[in-house]
Amino acid sequence: MPELPEVEVVRRGLAPHVIGRTIAEVEVLEPRAARRHAGGPADLVDQLRGVRVAALVRRGKFLWWRLEDAGGEDLGVALMTHLGMSGQLRVRGADAQSDAASSDAVAASSGPRPDPLRHRRITLRLDDGTLVDFIDQRIFGGLWTSPLVTASDGQAAGMGGDDALLPADAAHIGRDLLDPAIDLEAVAARIRARSASVKSLLLNQEIASGIGNIYADEGLWEARVRYDTPGSRVSRARTLALLEATAAVMRRALEVGGTSFDALYVNVDGRSGYFARSLSAYGREGEPCPRCGTAIRRVSFMNRSSHFCPACQRKRS
DNA sequence: GCTTACCTGCCA
DNA sequence: TGGCAGGTAAGC
Protein backbone atom coordinates (compact mmCIF):
# COMPACT_ATOMS: atom_id res chain seq x y z
CA MET A 1 0.00 0.00 0.00
CA PRO A 2 1.72 3.12 -1.17
CA GLU A 3 2.12 5.70 1.57
CA LEU A 4 4.51 8.65 1.59
CA PRO A 5 7.83 6.74 1.31
CA GLU A 6 6.58 4.59 -1.55
CA VAL A 7 5.25 7.60 -3.47
CA GLU A 8 8.54 9.42 -2.96
CA VAL A 9 10.40 6.39 -4.33
CA VAL A 10 8.19 6.63 -7.39
CA ARG A 11 8.79 10.36 -7.76
CA ARG A 12 12.55 9.96 -7.62
CA GLY A 13 12.54 6.99 -9.97
CA LEU A 14 10.23 8.59 -12.48
CA ALA A 15 11.68 12.10 -12.54
CA PRO A 16 14.76 11.47 -14.73
CA HIS A 17 12.59 9.70 -17.32
CA VAL A 18 9.93 12.37 -17.69
CA ILE A 19 11.21 15.83 -16.75
CA GLY A 20 11.89 17.86 -19.87
CA ARG A 21 10.07 15.33 -22.05
CA THR A 22 6.93 15.99 -24.06
CA ILE A 23 3.86 13.80 -23.81
CA ALA A 24 3.24 12.52 -27.32
CA GLU A 25 0.16 10.37 -26.77
CA VAL A 26 -2.07 9.06 -24.02
CA GLU A 27 -3.98 5.78 -24.06
CA VAL A 28 -6.80 5.25 -21.57
CA LEU A 29 -7.57 1.54 -21.35
CA GLU A 30 -9.79 1.80 -18.29
CA PRO A 31 -12.04 4.88 -18.11
CA ARG A 32 -12.53 4.47 -14.37
CA ALA A 33 -8.85 5.30 -13.86
CA ALA A 34 -9.69 8.76 -15.24
CA ARG A 35 -12.97 9.21 -13.39
CA ARG A 36 -11.61 12.10 -11.35
CA HIS A 37 -10.89 14.01 -14.54
CA ALA A 38 -13.76 16.47 -14.98
CA GLY A 39 -13.85 16.28 -18.79
CA GLY A 40 -13.68 12.51 -19.06
CA PRO A 41 -11.04 10.26 -20.66
CA ALA A 42 -11.13 11.84 -24.12
CA ASP A 43 -10.56 15.30 -22.68
CA LEU A 44 -7.68 14.04 -20.56
CA VAL A 45 -6.01 12.70 -23.69
CA ASP A 46 -6.56 15.98 -25.53
CA GLN A 47 -5.27 18.07 -22.64
CA LEU A 48 -2.05 16.12 -22.23
CA ARG A 49 -1.06 15.63 -25.84
CA GLY A 50 1.90 17.83 -26.77
CA VAL A 51 2.63 19.32 -23.35
CA ARG A 52 6.01 19.23 -21.67
CA VAL A 53 6.75 17.97 -18.16
CA ALA A 54 8.46 20.70 -16.14
CA ALA A 55 8.65 19.04 -12.71
CA LEU A 56 7.39 16.15 -10.59
CA VAL A 57 6.16 17.32 -7.23
CA ARG A 58 4.83 15.37 -4.25
CA ARG A 59 2.93 16.32 -1.14
CA GLY A 60 1.91 13.41 1.06
CA LYS A 61 0.62 10.69 -1.25
CA PHE A 62 -0.31 13.11 -4.02
CA LEU A 63 2.13 13.25 -6.93
CA TRP A 64 1.67 15.83 -9.66
CA TRP A 65 3.36 16.67 -12.93
CA ARG A 66 3.88 20.37 -13.61
CA LEU A 67 3.08 21.07 -17.23
CA GLU A 68 4.37 23.70 -19.64
CA ASP A 69 3.99 24.38 -23.34
CA ALA A 70 6.67 23.85 -25.98
CA GLY A 71 8.04 27.33 -25.29
CA GLY A 72 8.50 26.63 -21.60
CA GLU A 73 5.48 28.68 -20.51
CA ASP A 74 3.71 27.31 -17.44
CA LEU A 75 0.26 26.06 -18.37
CA GLY A 76 -1.20 26.70 -14.93
CA VAL A 77 -2.37 23.13 -14.62
CA ALA A 78 -0.91 19.90 -13.29
CA LEU A 79 -1.38 16.24 -14.10
CA MET A 80 -2.39 14.63 -10.82
CA THR A 81 -1.51 11.03 -10.03
CA HIS A 82 -2.69 9.18 -6.97
CA LEU A 83 -1.78 5.53 -6.48
CA GLY A 84 -4.68 4.71 -4.20
CA MET A 85 -4.38 1.23 -2.75
CA SER A 86 -2.66 -0.68 -5.50
CA GLY A 87 -1.40 1.82 -8.05
CA GLN A 88 1.99 1.68 -9.74
CA LEU A 89 3.80 3.84 -12.28
CA ARG A 90 6.22 1.92 -14.43
CA VAL A 91 8.59 2.95 -17.15
CA ARG A 92 9.16 0.89 -20.28
CA GLY A 93 10.51 1.43 -23.76
CA ALA A 94 13.32 3.79 -24.82
CA ASP A 95 16.13 3.16 -22.32
CA ALA A 96 13.98 0.98 -20.06
CA GLN A 97 14.03 -2.77 -20.62
CA SER A 98 10.77 -4.61 -20.20
CA ASP A 99 10.18 -6.50 -23.43
CA ALA A 100 8.68 -9.93 -23.88
CA ALA A 101 12.04 -11.68 -24.17
CA SER A 102 13.32 -10.54 -20.80
CA SER A 103 9.97 -11.27 -19.15
CA ASP A 104 10.02 -14.78 -20.56
CA ALA A 105 13.53 -15.28 -19.30
CA VAL A 106 12.47 -14.33 -15.80
CA ALA A 107 9.42 -16.58 -16.01
CA ALA A 108 11.51 -19.51 -17.16
CA SER A 109 13.90 -19.16 -14.26
CA SER A 110 11.42 -18.59 -11.47
CA GLY A 111 8.24 -20.26 -12.62
CA PRO A 112 5.04 -18.71 -13.94
CA ARG A 113 4.31 -15.19 -12.77
CA PRO A 114 1.44 -12.82 -13.46
CA ASP A 115 1.69 -10.51 -16.43
CA PRO A 116 3.12 -7.26 -15.04
CA LEU A 117 0.91 -5.29 -17.42
CA ARG A 118 -2.22 -7.20 -16.48
CA HIS A 119 -3.80 -4.24 -14.69
CA ARG A 120 -2.55 -1.54 -17.05
CA ARG A 121 -5.09 1.29 -17.02
CA ILE A 122 -3.45 4.28 -18.70
CA THR A 123 -0.25 4.63 -20.73
CA LEU A 124 1.59 7.85 -21.52
CA ARG A 125 3.96 7.81 -24.49
CA LEU A 126 6.71 10.40 -24.39
CA ASP A 127 8.49 11.99 -27.34
CA ASP A 128 11.59 9.81 -26.90
CA GLY A 129 9.53 6.62 -26.99
CA THR A 130 9.42 6.09 -23.24
CA LEU A 131 6.18 4.54 -22.04
CA VAL A 132 4.86 5.30 -18.58
CA ASP A 133 2.21 2.81 -17.48
CA PHE A 134 -0.27 3.48 -14.74
CA ILE A 135 -1.09 0.05 -13.37
CA ASP A 136 -3.76 -0.34 -10.72
CA GLN A 137 -5.50 -3.55 -9.76
CA ARG A 138 -8.27 -2.00 -7.65
CA ILE A 139 -8.63 1.32 -9.50
CA PHE A 140 -8.73 3.36 -6.31
CA GLY A 141 -6.07 5.58 -7.82
CA GLY A 142 -6.08 7.52 -11.05
CA LEU A 143 -4.88 10.35 -13.29
CA TRP A 144 -6.57 13.70 -13.80
CA THR A 145 -5.70 17.36 -14.24
CA SER A 146 -6.16 20.15 -11.74
CA PRO A 147 -5.54 23.91 -12.04
CA LEU A 148 -2.73 25.40 -9.97
CA VAL A 149 -3.37 27.58 -6.95
CA THR A 150 -0.95 29.18 -4.47
CA ALA A 151 -0.07 27.48 -1.17
CA SER A 152 -1.49 29.52 1.68
CA ASP A 153 1.82 29.83 3.52
CA GLY A 154 3.72 30.87 0.40
CA GLN A 155 6.37 28.20 0.86
CA ALA A 156 7.38 25.56 -1.69
CA ALA A 157 4.27 23.47 -2.29
CA GLY A 158 5.92 20.07 -2.07
CA MET A 159 9.01 17.98 -2.65
CA GLY A 160 10.41 18.38 -6.13
CA GLY A 161 9.05 21.88 -6.66
CA ASP A 162 10.50 25.29 -5.90
CA ASP A 163 7.44 27.50 -5.90
CA ALA A 164 4.20 27.71 -3.92
CA LEU A 165 1.91 26.54 -6.73
CA LEU A 166 -0.04 23.34 -6.18
CA PRO A 167 -3.08 21.71 -7.75
CA ALA A 168 -6.45 22.87 -6.41
CA ASP A 169 -7.29 19.23 -5.71
CA ALA A 170 -4.32 19.01 -3.34
CA ALA A 171 -4.76 22.39 -1.69
CA HIS A 172 -6.71 20.92 1.24
CA ILE A 173 -3.93 18.41 1.92
CA GLY A 174 -1.62 19.33 4.77
CA ARG A 175 2.14 19.35 4.50
CA ASP A 176 3.71 15.97 5.15
CA LEU A 177 6.08 15.00 7.93
CA LEU A 178 9.13 15.02 5.65
CA ASP A 179 8.38 18.51 4.32
CA PRO A 180 10.98 21.01 5.63
CA ALA A 181 8.27 23.68 5.69
CA ILE A 182 5.95 21.73 8.02
CA ASP A 183 5.10 23.35 11.35
CA LEU A 184 5.14 20.42 13.77
CA GLU A 185 4.03 22.55 16.71
CA ALA A 186 0.96 23.61 14.76
CA VAL A 187 0.21 20.01 13.75
CA ALA A 188 0.52 18.89 17.38
CA ALA A 189 -1.80 21.69 18.45
CA ARG A 190 -4.42 20.61 15.93
CA ILE A 191 -4.25 17.02 17.16
CA ARG A 192 -4.52 18.10 20.79
CA ALA A 193 -7.48 20.33 20.04
CA ARG A 194 -9.65 17.35 19.10
CA SER A 195 -11.30 14.55 21.01
CA ALA A 196 -11.26 12.12 18.10
CA SER A 197 -8.89 9.16 18.35
CA VAL A 198 -5.28 10.04 17.78
CA LYS A 199 -5.02 7.43 15.01
CA SER A 200 -7.90 8.94 13.07
CA LEU A 201 -6.17 12.32 13.38
CA LEU A 202 -2.88 10.84 12.13
CA LEU A 203 -4.74 9.44 9.13
CA ASN A 204 -6.47 12.76 8.45
CA GLN A 205 -4.57 14.08 5.43
CA GLU A 206 -5.68 17.64 6.11
CA ILE A 207 -3.73 17.83 9.38
CA ALA A 208 -0.54 16.20 8.16
CA SER A 209 -0.37 14.11 5.00
CA GLY A 210 1.34 10.96 3.84
CA ILE A 211 0.48 8.70 6.76
CA GLY A 212 -1.54 5.56 6.02
CA ASN A 213 -2.57 2.63 8.15
CA ILE A 214 0.85 1.01 8.24
CA TYR A 215 2.91 4.02 9.30
CA ALA A 216 0.21 5.15 11.72
CA ASP A 217 0.44 1.84 13.57
CA GLU A 218 4.24 1.94 13.50
CA GLY A 219 4.45 5.54 14.72
CA LEU A 220 1.99 4.85 17.53
CA TRP A 221 3.99 1.79 18.55
CA GLU A 222 7.26 3.76 18.56
CA ALA A 223 5.75 6.52 20.69
CA ARG A 224 3.90 4.02 22.94
CA VAL A 225 0.55 5.63 22.26
CA ARG A 226 -2.57 3.51 21.85
CA TYR A 227 -4.60 4.02 18.68
CA ASP A 228 -7.82 4.98 20.45
CA THR A 229 -6.40 7.63 22.75
CA PRO A 230 -8.26 10.92 22.22
CA GLY A 231 -6.03 13.54 20.64
CA SER A 232 -6.83 15.86 23.50
CA ARG A 233 -5.43 13.34 26.01
CA VAL A 234 -1.95 13.17 24.52
CA SER A 235 0.55 15.60 26.02
CA ARG A 236 2.22 18.17 23.83
CA ALA A 237 5.59 16.47 24.30
CA ARG A 238 4.21 13.04 23.48
CA THR A 239 2.34 14.35 20.45
CA LEU A 240 5.55 15.85 19.14
CA ALA A 241 7.36 12.60 19.90
CA LEU A 242 4.66 10.69 18.01
CA LEU A 243 5.05 12.91 14.96
CA GLU A 244 8.83 12.64 15.12
CA ALA A 245 8.66 8.85 15.50
CA THR A 246 6.29 8.52 12.54
CA ALA A 247 8.56 10.71 10.45
CA ALA A 248 11.56 8.61 11.46
CA VAL A 249 9.84 5.37 10.42
CA MET A 250 8.99 6.88 7.06
CA ARG A 251 12.53 8.15 6.58
CA ARG A 252 13.89 4.67 7.27
CA ALA A 253 11.40 3.14 4.85
CA LEU A 254 12.42 5.66 2.22
CA GLU A 255 16.08 4.77 2.64
CA VAL A 256 15.41 1.07 2.16
CA GLY A 257 12.84 1.59 -0.58
CA GLY A 258 15.28 3.82 -2.39
CA THR A 259 17.68 0.95 -2.86
CA SER A 260 15.15 -1.54 -4.18
CA PHE A 261 14.57 0.01 -7.58
CA ASP A 262 16.93 0.76 -10.40
CA ALA A 263 16.77 3.57 -12.89
CA LEU A 264 15.00 1.49 -15.50
CA TYR A 265 12.13 0.20 -13.48
CA VAL A 266 10.05 2.31 -11.18
CA ASN A 267 9.06 -0.08 -8.45
CA VAL A 268 6.05 0.93 -6.43
CA ASP A 269 5.44 -2.24 -4.53
CA GLY A 270 5.40 -1.12 -0.90
CA ARG A 271 6.13 -4.64 0.26
CA SER A 272 9.57 -4.84 -1.27
CA GLY A 273 12.45 -5.19 1.15
CA TYR A 274 11.48 -2.96 3.98
CA PHE A 275 8.13 -4.46 4.79
CA ALA A 276 9.36 -7.99 5.18
CA ARG A 277 11.84 -7.08 7.91
CA SER A 278 11.44 -3.79 9.63
CA LEU A 279 7.88 -3.39 10.86
CA SER A 280 7.40 -3.69 14.61
CA ALA A 281 3.62 -3.89 14.96
CA TYR A 282 1.80 -3.78 11.63
CA GLY A 283 0.94 -7.24 10.35
CA ARG A 284 2.52 -8.91 13.37
CA GLU A 285 -0.53 -10.09 15.26
CA GLY A 286 0.46 -12.74 17.80
CA GLU A 287 4.18 -12.11 17.41
CA PRO A 288 6.19 -10.80 20.36
CA CYS A 289 6.50 -7.05 20.73
CA PRO A 290 10.13 -6.22 19.80
CA ARG A 291 10.31 -4.03 22.91
CA CYS A 292 8.71 -6.10 25.69
CA GLY A 293 7.81 -9.49 24.24
CA THR A 294 4.07 -9.23 24.79
CA ALA A 295 2.02 -10.60 21.90
CA ILE A 296 1.00 -7.91 19.41
CA ARG A 297 -2.77 -7.58 19.12
CA ARG A 298 -4.86 -6.77 16.09
CA VAL A 299 -8.24 -5.14 16.48
CA SER A 300 -10.77 -3.78 14.02
CA PHE A 301 -10.97 -0.02 14.31
CA MET A 302 -12.47 2.49 11.89
CA ASN A 303 -13.12 -0.33 9.42
CA ARG A 304 -9.44 -1.19 9.24
CA SER A 305 -6.92 -3.09 11.30
CA SER A 306 -4.99 -1.61 14.18
CA HIS A 307 -1.92 -3.41 15.52
CA PHE A 308 -0.54 -2.56 18.93
CA CYS A 309 1.24 -3.89 21.98
CA PRO A 310 -1.24 -4.12 24.86
CA ALA A 311 1.58 -3.70 27.38
CA CYS A 312 3.68 -0.89 25.88
CA GLN A 313 0.78 1.07 24.45
CA ARG A 314 -1.56 1.40 27.38
CA LYS A 315 -5.00 2.88 27.41
CA ARG A 316 -4.94 6.61 28.16
CA SER A 317 -8.52 7.75 27.91
C1' DG B 1 -17.34 13.17 12.81
C1' DC B 2 -18.87 8.95 11.41
C1' DT B 3 -20.45 5.67 7.70
C1' DT B 4 -20.61 4.21 3.08
C1' DA B 5 -19.11 3.60 -1.73
C1' DC B 6 -15.67 2.77 -4.77
C1' DC B 7 -12.74 -1.57 -6.46
C1' DT B 8 -10.44 -6.49 -7.22
C1' DG B 9 -7.98 -10.53 -5.80
C1' DC B 10 -6.76 -13.58 -2.48
C1' DC B 11 -7.42 -16.62 1.25
C1' DA B 12 -9.70 -19.28 4.80
C1' DT C 1 -18.29 -17.80 -0.48
C1' DG C 2 -17.72 -14.28 2.64
C1' DG C 3 -14.27 -11.56 4.77
C1' DC C 4 -10.38 -8.72 4.31
C1' DA C 5 -7.04 -5.38 2.41
C1' DG C 6 -7.61 0.45 2.79
C1' DG C 7 -7.07 5.87 0.55
C1' DT C 8 -10.30 9.21 -0.54
C1' DA C 9 -14.48 11.74 -0.78
C1' DA C 10 -19.25 12.18 -0.66
C1' DG C 11 -23.23 11.79 2.18
C1' DC C 12 -25.66 11.86 6.47
From TrEMBL:
<dbReference type="InterPro" id="IPR000214">
    <property type="entry name" value="Znf_DNA_glyclase/AP_lyase"/>
</dbReference>
<dbReference type="GO" id="GO:0003684">
    <property type="term" value="F:damaged DNA binding"/>
</dbReference>
<feature type="binding site">
    <location>
        <position position="119"/>
    </location>
    <ligand>
        <name>DNA</name>
    </ligand>
</feature>
<dbReference type="GO" id="GO:0003690">
    <property type="term" value="F:double-stranded DNA binding"/>
</dbReference>
<feature type="active site" description="Schiff-base intermediate with DNA">
    <location>
        <position position="2"/>
    </location>
</feature>
<comment type="function">
    <text>Involved in base excision repair of DNA damaged by oxidation or by mutagenic agents. Acts as DNA glycosylase that recognizes and removes damaged bases. Has a preference for oxidized purines, such as 7,8-dihydro-8-oxoguanine (8-oxoG). Has AP (apurinic/apyrimidinic) lyase activity and introduces nicks in the DNA strand. Cleaves the DNA backbone by beta-delta elimination to generate a single-strand break at the site of the removed base with both 3'- and 5'-phosphates.</text>
</comment>
<feature type="domain" description="Formamidopyrimidine-DNA glycosylase catalytic">
    <location>
        <begin position="2"/>
        <end position="141"/>
    </location>
</feature>
<dbReference type="GO" id="GO:0008270">
    <property type="term" value="F:zinc ion binding"/>
</dbReference>
<dbReference type="InterPro" id="IPR010663">
    <property type="entry name" value="Znf_FPG/IleRS"/>
</dbReference>
<keyword id="KW-0479">Metal-binding</keyword>
<comment type="subunit">
    <text>Monomer.</text>
</comment>
<dbReference type="InterPro" id="IPR010979">
    <property type="entry name" value="Ribosomal_uS13-like_H2TH"/>
</dbReference>
<protein>
    <recommendedName>
        <fullName>Formamidopyrimidine-DNA glycosylase</fullName>
        <ecNumber>3.2.2.23</ecNumber>
        <ecNumber>4.2.99.18</ecNumber>
    </recommendedName>
</protein>
<feature type="active site" description="Proton donor">
    <location>
        <position position="3"/>
    </location>
</feature>
<dbReference type="InterPro" id="IPR012319">
    <property type="entry name" value="FPG_cat"/>
</dbReference>
<dbReference type="GO" id="GO:0006979">
    <property type="term" value="P:response to oxidative stress"/>
</dbReference>
<dbReference type="Pfam" id="PF06827">
    <property type="entry name" value="zf-FPG_IleRS"/>
</dbReference>
<dbReference type="InterPro" id="IPR015887">
    <property type="entry name" value="DNA_glyclase_Znf_dom_DNA_BS"/>
</dbReference>
<keyword id="KW-0227">DNA damage</keyword>
<feature type="active site" description="Proton donor; for beta-elimination activity">
    <location>
        <position position="61"/>
    </location>
</feature>
<feature type="binding site">
    <location>
        <position position="194"/>
    </location>
    <ligand>
        <name>DNA</name>
    </ligand>
</feature>
<dbReference type="GO" id="GO:0140078">
    <property type="term" value="F:class I DNA-(apurinic or apyrimidinic site) endonuclease activity"/>
</dbReference>
<comment type="similarity">
    <text>Belongs to the FPG family.</text>
</comment>
<dbReference type="GO" id="GO:0034039">
    <property type="term" value="F:8-oxo-7,8-dihydroguanine DNA N-glycosylase activity"/>
</dbReference>
<keyword id="KW-0863">Zinc-finger</keyword>
<keyword id="KW-0862">Zinc</keyword>
<keyword id="KW-0238">DNA-binding</keyword>
<keyword id="KW-0456">Lyase</keyword>
<keyword id="KW-0326">Glycosidase</keyword>
<dbReference type="InterPro" id="IPR035937">
    <property type="entry name" value="FPG_N"/>
</dbReference>
<keyword id="KW-0511">Multifunctional enzyme</keyword>
<feature type="binding site">
    <location>
        <position position="138"/>
    </location>
    <ligand>
        <name>DNA</name>
    </ligand>
</feature>
<feature type="active site" description="Proton donor; for delta-elimination activity">
    <location>
        <position position="304"/>
    </location>
</feature>
<dbReference type="InterPro" id="IPR015886">
    <property type="entry name" value="H2TH_FPG"/>
</dbReference>
<keyword id="KW-0234">DNA repair</keyword>
<dbReference type="InterPro" id="IPR020629">
    <property type="entry name" value="FPG_Glyclase"/>
</dbReference>
<keyword id="KW-0378">Hydrolase</keyword>
<dbReference type="GO" id="GO:0006284">
    <property type="term" value="P:base-excision repair"/>
</dbReference>
<dbReference type="Pfam" id="PF01149">
    <property type="entry name" value="Fapy_DNA_glyco"/>
</dbReference>
<feature type="domain" description="FPG-type">
    <location>
        <begin position="280"/>
        <end position="314"/>
    </location>
</feature>
<dbReference type="Pfam" id="PF06831">
    <property type="entry name" value="H2TH"/>
</dbReference>
